[in-house]
Amino acid sequence: MSHPAAGHGRWSTRKAGRHETAERGHERHEEAFRVLEGELSLEVDDRTLTLGAYAVVPRGAVHRPYNAGPVQVRFLFITSPALDGFFAEMAELNAATGGCPPAQALRDLGARWDCVFTALPGGGATTRMVNEDR
Known about the structure:
Number of helices: 2
Distance between the termini: 18 Å
Oligomer: single chain
Radius of gyration: 14 Å
Structural class: alpha+beta
């Protein structure tokens, strides 16, 4: 397990085609992305990262990574400080909701882990959060 003050890294994939996930920001965390295969779109500066490209999302920046391309993308994802607990809880929430958790569940999760989800639907609406394979 990572030390809470240290960074956390993992590789991840996004399936082909634009699969929306909720925009989010972090007041106390940076995120970095390094593309290993394919292309990753990163809504922070409306950038498309290609093979070998690297981008850092600064604290407070609202962002959303997604794959609009025709093939799967594989990338290295690093957070600093670590957000291990957030990803564990998100995996449990996605498993329990078929990848479409209620907006309030995302707000509650985000409040515990410095993740402010923006533009979530109101009421009992759900938000698609699963578009990756590990």
